[in-house]
Amino acid sequence: MRAGLIGLWRWTAWGGIGLSLYAGWLTADDLRDRASSERDISAACDGLVSGAAVMDLQGGMVRAKGSDYDEFRLDSRELHSSCTVYKVPGPGKTTSLFTLVVRRSDASEPMNWIGDDSGLEPFDDTDDTDDTDDTEKGDVTAVADRRPEAWPVGDGTLGRYGNWYTTVRAECGPGSRATAPELLNVTARADYDDVSAADRERIARIARTAAEAAADRIGCKAHLAALPAPQLAPVPVTLRPAKTTGGSCRWFAAHLRQQGQDRLPDRALAVPVRDTNPLEGCLLAVGPDQVGRIADGLNDDERDYARSALTHSPWWLRTASYFGPEAHTVGYELLGSEDALIEAGTAGHAGGAWWASSVCDGKPALHTLSSSYTYDDILGSRRLNTLFRAYVDDITKRRGCTDVTYPDAKDFRDL
Length: 415
Fold this sequence. Notes:
Strand 2 (80-90) and strand 3 (93-104) form a beta hairpin. The chain has seven helices and 18 strands. Helix 5 runs antiparallel to helix 6 (300-309). The chain is an alpha+beta fold. It starts with a helix and ends in a 10-residue tail after the last strand.
């Protein structure tokens, strides 16, 4: 009996040692895989990011890889470039994890787009009649689920962020290399849903570190502010009643009080106002009840627009102003042609976009209005002209801007 117990104890001991050795081997193997993944990530992103920082996203992981395709591997010598990193949950399985995008300002190509043809629609108009969620077919403008307004990081000079990305901007100042751009933008983006607050902070740190490295590499002398100490708050995505809106959309609430509702949007999504913010936007949209009220006053042909506004062509407007170097980066998409860059100091209309210019604090500024194409005809030139002037008058007065240039009246003619 005693001999049997001793034998059992010995086998248990040897089994425990074996399991410990196997666990140690797995741990060492995981460490080797993680270290290899970190090197691959750094190489794919041209050394601008820490592979370890990327590997800590989404709760941390053991294996990840950079894209095998050159077009998704970053080359900092290029004007615009990006890298994509994939999580490897198992053999032969990959899911997109992270993307880094580096863009430099250029005299021929935009960095910021306006208009209705630019692929920047704010709402997901997925046709899903079986889904009872309010954001689906019944109320497509309730939530800006595709592209809500970006909030400023701190006072805005460092950049802007959303719930899944951060864009850090670097203005290249005195002492920069002759070939350095006026402005460098670096965007770090999580490519998965439900990004946590901790990951939002990680993304911001990755973006700032990458921007510093990219600026140094291209000879851009820039001062990047520190990230704000409090955590980056979640960015709101739900639109609110326009009549009581504040922040960057406060001007529109005042316009409604003066001019009345008429056919104008009844919903708004604002960002905090910072007079140092180089990019400030306001999203306006029409809810289903307001669509119905507008439809009552339309002819039979125009009512088709109203029906589409409840489904695949929601009615929305977006105002945005760009200050300093940002004013030289704005353009719109021309169908069948290259993107057109707007010249600062000009005013006009094209492709669902309107723009006016001014000088703010001695620097150029560009003030814009974008409209969904089906909403243009519903509003008409008179309303658009009045609305756009109200916006430009408000923001130029608030920012102390001068030399305001408006589009000609002919640019607001009914189409």
